[in-house]
Amino acid sequence: MKDLNNKTALITGGSKGIGYGVAEALMNAGVNVAITSRSLTNAETAAEELEKKTKGKALGIKADVRNLIDQEEAVRHTLEKFGQLDFVIANAGIGHYGKITELTDHDWRETIDTNLTGVFYSAKASIEALKKSKGYFISISSLAGTNFFAGGAAYNASKFGVTGFTQAMMLDLRDDGISVSTIMPGSVSTHFNGNDPEQNEEKEAWKIQKEDLGELVVDLFKMNKRSLPSKVEIRPSQPPKK
Asked: Which InterPro entries does UniProt cross-reference here (predicted)?
């Protein structure tokens, strides 16, 4: 089991939800974390909160995953602050749902640009740093990346793409010593798509919690390098009966 103390992680979309939960778990394990958000205020506020309740250091960065230069700058700021980059978690995502007859060009482009192109940009910006550290790249896909559903044309397309992209990237980069995995959660209790888990705590209790995914990421990073769970599906163990 590897010691994570003084390692450094960069998490996109880390100011809330899954990204925040992963950041908290990593910081409790001794990892220094940079989190990005399109809002500098949100990123810095989350970083301050995380530092108060964990033993790690945090850096809030304003960056939009749909912009390659933003991702390159996020990596640069992380290296300037912490001196190294060991882990990248490409987590930022959105969801627009609706029948193909209702799906707008804006909704399609925003979903693909954020969920899929954003992962590509996060990878392109960080690969050289991860080569130096023999690091680990994780994308947060979804069970919607293998199971299609009505009204999910844009979201399914983005997450099917993330799953395929990340698996191919794993093959491309393993000879460089970089580990690559994709995590595919089912229903997660987050603020995704306008949900408010704090206001619906009892109803949300059956879902995967953000700290569960944080624990999973820590476990992946602690594994011996000879083994790689390249694709991890995670579901609620007791979903409501239909």
From this structure: KR_dom, NAD(P)-bd_dom_sf, Sc_DH/Rdtase_CS, SDR, SDR_fam
| Token pair belonging to 132 | 């130096």
Cβ atoms 208, 187 nearer than 8 A: yes
Could you say which of 20, 121, 136, 155 is catalytic? 155
Q: Is 121 a known active-site residue?
A: no
Q: What is the pLDDT of residues 114-125, one digit of tens each?
A: 999 999 999 999
What residues have CB less than 8 Å from 235, skipping those under 6 apart? 143, 185, 186, 208
CA–CA dist 232, 154 (Å, integer): 22
Q: Phi and psi of 234, rounded to 5°? A: -135, 130
CA distance 189 to 198: 9
Report the alpha-carbon distance of residue 182 to residue 171 in Å, rounded: 13
Which residues, 6 or more positions from 130, have their beta carbon under 8 angstroms from its beta carbon? Answer: 85, 86, 88, 136, 137, 173, 176, 178
* Cβ atoms 63, 69 nearer than 8 A: no
Of residues 179, 142, 135, the one with CA closest to residue 162: 142
Q: Does the pLDDT at position 55 exceed 90? A: no
Domain 8-234 has CATH 3.40.50.740: no
Which residues is 180 bridged to in the sheet?
A: 137
Give the pLDDT band (50/70/90) at residue 230: very high
pLDDT in tens, 94-138: 999 999 999 999 999 999 999 999 999 999 999 999 999 999 999
pTM score, whole prediction: 0.94
